[in-house]
Amino acid sequence: xxxxxxxxxxxxxxxxxxxxxxxxxxxxxxxxxxxxxxxxxxxxxxxxxxxxxxxxxxxxxxxxxxxxxxxxxxxxxxxxxxxxxxxxxxxxxxxxxxxxxxxxxxxxxxxxxxxxxxxxxxxxxxxxxxxxxxxxxxxxxxxxxxxxxxxxxxxxxxxxxxxxxxxxxxxxxxxxxxxxxxxxxxxxxxxxxxxxxxxxxxxxxxxxxxxxxxxxxxxxxxxxxxxxxxxxxxxxxxxxxxxxxxxxxxxxxxxxxxxxxxxxxxxxxxxxxxxxxxxxxxxxxxxxxxxxxxxxxxxxxxxxxxxxxxxxxxxxxxxxxxxxxxxxxxxxxxxxxxxxxxxxxxxxxxxxxxxxxxxxxxxxxxxxxxxxxxxxxxxxxxxxxxxxxxxxxxxxxxxxxxxxxxxxxxxxxxxxxxxxxxxxxxxxxxxxxxxxxxxxxxxxxxxxxxxxxxxxxxxxxxxxxxxxxxxxxxxxxxxxxxxxxxxxxxxxxxxxxxxxxxxxxxxxxxxxxxxxxxxxxxxxxxxxxxxxxxxxxxxxxxxxxxxxxxxxxxxxxxxxxxxxxxxxxxxxxxxxxxxxxxxxxxxxxxxxx
Length: 593
What we know:
alpha+beta
């Protein structure tokens, strides 16, 4: 106590001796008066002798905790013992300090007081939620609509966002449905046509952001172009659609998605641009895995699919997709499935499949084909376009084995080679044999055609050139009608030459006198008719019975009568129409004459 009073009397002695302008006061004590949406700080004067308290001036400064720069409040705006801070960010940590100096600046500034740390309260969130959609199949197999949105910016959130409220409408009904979801995805029915979403904290919620999906085939932007910037970003430009009916969209949305990724995270992102803006610079990707959002940079040698959408009040319109790389590398594999097909003894067609997307590592500019014999040096053919899937090799040696492989190239250079494919060209000997067989087959076919057309003429020629026995068909004896004339109705009354007990001697040949052809003029085939003896005419019933008995051989021979053999010889010859085949024709008879 004595030491403090001694210090105060010593300070009073100094003030009396040198004046107030030489004094440096102690720093004031800073405190927090009110912490509401507005923050008020106050302070108290430093300790002075009881009867010698000077008038002091104060200076206040504050900043966000950890920030390098301070914000200073002018002395003219300061109250004697408090000050209300304006324009502070909600739910943000700040620190403040104060110092003083004797009035009229006749002295020195005191040191800054120790920092007063405090956090501002939450406020109602501002802004709109950036929402987008992705069509994807649900776990049950039925298609669904995957709704994605970005976390609200911290400065717009003005507090801790606790949930997002989603309201949607489907095609089946006009009623609206709502659900609460954490950040930053939700699955909705595939028939959803309109979506509204807002973010909420303890104080309030944002205005709902809307997304119309009623029509998804509206005119989209055209002429999308993508360029890599410094191997890290992508610069996208496009032209608006020239649809006079729909007009220009309210805004544009640029979407990018990884076409191939080894991880489970769906890395994609989007950025919005107002109407009248036709370019965007993409600086990173946004993905979501198990509902947790994550930001990241573009990966080199990874293909990204770029689309530009036009957002209309009644729906959306998409552009054609464009593939882009931020940084290209050489392909890690060559073309797949090499095959050959021989078209001649010195030419073959080589076909292949494109390099898989995950092994391209960039835009394929061309293919290079290498060909070599087992003992020769590889021969490089000219560059083959990236869109080609076949190539014709000419000038090959017949009957030679070749080794073939291919590579793909990007702007970074030539990549790894494909597996070696071995094939052999056909031998020329077999080609000649094949040609001979084809020629013989063609001639045979031609002969068959000519034979079918000229069949009648060829048959007539054969009849004139070849003997009669070569082309004439010999009749079968079983078809003869002679036995029909010799048999009676009673099969046991048959008395022909083959009947039992009859002589098997050959019948006596009958000599015929052939008249002069002149006498047979104008008689046609009367000669042939005269050769055939007609059946005897039955004059009466008695004669008919006698003739029948004589022909059938049933009459018993009398004592002086003729035998059966004699009756057979005396019987007139019977000639049927079938035997005419053996008789000479008129031309032959005339020829003999």
